Amino acid sequence: MFYLTQQERMVVLALAFVLFFGAMTKYAFQKYPHIKDLVNFADSDFAYEKIDVNTATAEELEAIPYIGKMTAKNIIDFREKNGAFTSIEQLKNVKGIRDKNYAIFSKYIFVKEFKRFVDGSRKGI
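The chain above was modelled as a monomer; its predicted structure follows.
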C-alpha cells in the first residue's frame, strides 16, 4: 500500500470533485435539455440589445461581442466615408470583419429601413 501526503490527498479530492461535477452536468444536460438555454444565455439574442449600426457610437459597438475598439473604429470610418449602411451585409466590406465574426455579431445589430423619395432624399421609417 502507498501513502499520500496531505497535499496529494487534496489534489486527488479536487480531481474527484471535478469528475463528479462533470458527470452530473452531463447527466443534467441529457435529462433536462432546456438547461442549455440558461447556460447559453450570454450568447443568446436576449443578452444584448440590438443596435442600429448607422447611429451607434464606438462605445455602443464595442459592447457587442466580437467587436473591439479597432473594429468599431473601422465601422464608423467606413460609415463616414461611404455613407449610411443600407444592409447589415455591407459590414462584410469593413476592414477587419471576417465572415466568422460577422456571423456571430450580426444578430445584435440592424440597419434602420429608409424610404427613398423621388428627389433622392431618404427618411427613416
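Residues 6-31 form the longest helix (26 residues).
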